[in-house]
Design brief:
By secondary structure, this protein is mostly beta strands. It is 3% helix and 33% strand. The strands form two sheets. Strands 2, 6, 7, 8, 9, 10 and 11 form a seven-stranded antiparallel beta sheet that branches. A four-stranded antiparallel beta sheet has the order 1-5-4-3, with no helix packed on it.
Amino acid sequence: MNIKNATLVLGTALVLAVAGCSSVSDSGSDTTETTATATTGGAETPAAGAESCPSAPANADATPQWTEKGTTGALQMVASTATEAPDITVENPFSVDATQVKVLVEGDGAVVPETATVSVCYVGVNGRTGETFDSAYANGSPATFPLDGVIPGFSKAIANQNVGSKVGVAMTSADGYASGNPQAGIEVGDTLVFEISILGAS
């Protein structure tokens, strides 16, 4: 068994491409850290005036809000707090045969419509490798994008949730990058895992 604790290694938060879209670029920031770019065509803009994403490490003693056995491997997830980033620990290779969404913390805001533009903090981990490939928590800035402009599993996790909620999602390759995303280190068939904090919707 190979257990990996996904650490926030990226310096730039990136927005997830609609599956099958061939446009790949980074957010334009000049960073010397290794970044895996999984973004597309103008989907991401900084959330002007929005609250920041916490970047302090999660409390090592925090109790996971989600523990899941996969088709292979397993995961544990601790939601972000007001001051701490989330923690995702993967026994890899972790995979699921159906996309699963788990509400980690229930928000008390308005329900997010399927056509909303949302502001979120999030981190994405590749279930096969256990490595973080994308993180808004890493640079402290939320991402804002329309739900119809991201991979299906990401919008499935957010739509119909309450603003203020923190959700986890483990998505199949079909709901993520069915054709892979080499620049982000994502191969065909990879299960992707996210923790998402929903800050706002319009």
